[in-house]
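Here is the promised in-class demo. Please do not try to memorize the tokens; focus on the logic of going from shape to residues.
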């Protein structure tokens, strides 16, 4: 249970499309936003609110707030917190069709170990609005950065530093090949996982609406 709370908290949700939306004609750039109140199989009311937008300079701004009254194990002890509150600041946004992936850093939480950890939010816009029967979808998670205490080396090459070098492997015969970096960033971000890898489950009730605007 400690590892569940400390290393990765992943709560998949499927949200009904009824409720508030956020738009601004004066703003430009891809964006995603939503505001929800919902319950899972346990019947407990939860809420999540988020907004993200890519600015003209390419930077992403936005934030997410999640509130869950159900206690979770505290990673530093065997006790449980009195509910869960997480607020995160987004620094990336990736939109493909009606789906959006947002990522950033936890800035506030009643679980101290979550602060400064990475958070992912994935949403799907069903295209509906208030009182629509189509369902929007959402899933999110909090991730601890890996703590690397060793560097891989060739035992037959004293002082081998090959694992610390940077290069990009590309297909020589394809000019459009963007290549694969030798050292991929371990920071959780919008492109860490493919959209097809996220799992979504039904919720019992919901109020809210997702808007994804490429």
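The designed amino acids, position by position:
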């Amino acid at each position: 249970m400690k590892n569940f709370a400390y290393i990765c908290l992943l709560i998949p949700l499927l949200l009904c499309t009824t409720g508030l939306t956020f738009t601004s004609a004066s703003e430009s750039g891809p964006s995603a936003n939503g505001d929800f109140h919902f319950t899972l199989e346990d019947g407990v009311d939860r809420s999540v609110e988020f907004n993200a937008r890519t600015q003209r300079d390419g930077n992403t701004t936005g934030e997410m707030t999640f509130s869950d009254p159900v206690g979770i194990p505290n990673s530093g002890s065997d006790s449980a917190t009195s509910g869960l509150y997480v607020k995160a600041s987004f620094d990336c946004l990736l939109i493909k069709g009606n789906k959006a992936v947002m990522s950033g850093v936890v800035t506030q939480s009643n679980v101290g170990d979550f602060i400064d950890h990475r958070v992912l939010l994935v949403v799907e816009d069903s295209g509906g609005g208030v009182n629509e029967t189509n369902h929007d979808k959402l899933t999110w998670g909090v991730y601890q950065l890996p703590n690397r205490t060793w560097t891989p080396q060739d035992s037959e090459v004293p002082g081998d530093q090959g694992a610390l070098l940077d290069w990009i492997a590309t297909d020589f015969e394809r000019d459009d090949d963007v290549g694969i970096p030798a050292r991929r960033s371990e920071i959780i971000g919008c492109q860490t996982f493919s959209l097809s890898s996220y799992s979504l489950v039904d919720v019992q009730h919901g109020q809210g609406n997702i808007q994804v605007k490429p």
